[in-house]
Amino acid sequence: EVQLSDSGGGLVKPGGSLRLSCAASGFSFTTFAMAWVRQAPGQGLEWVSSISGDGGNTYYVDSVRGRFTVSRDNSKDILYLEMNSLRAEDTAVYFCARVHVVAIDAWGQGTLVTVSS
Amino acid sequence: IQLTQSPSSLSASIGDRVTITCRASRDINNVLAWYQQKPGKAPNLLISGASNLQSGVPPRFSGSGFGTDFTLTISSLQPEDIASYYCQQLISYPLTFGGGTKVEIK
Fold first, then answer.
1. Residue A101 has pLDDT above 90, yes or no
2. Mutate to test the interface with A, among B34, B35, B95, B97 (most CBs of A within 10 A)
3. What DSSP string runs through A50-64?
4. Cis omega before residue B94 (within 30°)?
5. How far apart, in whole angstroms, are the C-alpha atoms of residue B80 and residue A37?
6. How many of the other CB atoms lie within 10 Å of CB of B2?
């Protein structure tokens, strides 16, 4: 069974940092690109970042480029999102997700990041 | 690529046919997915490649379209279909989602 388990969310002050993790199991992790998608309270879904299976290619939405870094440890089947210079508008539930060709076919349960003083 | 979903919300009766549209700002071939999200839960993939129903998804759901105009149809609305629905294009970065459609029971 494919499982994605997000963790690492919490309350952080503006300008602070946080690292999210996503432990994957039940599939060949290196075979799949992975992504982070967020959802602000009461709002819709927003794609944040993606990384290729070998970690060699990364992509970001403009609003986080230069502040967030996506990475993966294929020896441990873990996806990361390092978030720096956090802003109030980064407050959201962050989902890790598996990208299968032309769709996201598996999602983590989500981890809440709250940026507030 | 911007995706414009309509309507943003709708209210329908059990058994009704429900149609949600998603318009892309430029040609995305058929590289469009539809997701269902229930409150407090992660999204769930319904349809990929604009019209390919995922395993386990009831056949009352269907998708169609190509290029810039796409449709998600629920042929006979059921109580368990109360949720928000999102389209997403995956043909180019940044990947984008439509604004969502909240489906409620009348």
1. no
2. B95
3. EE-TTS--EEE-TTT
4. yes
5. 24
6. 11
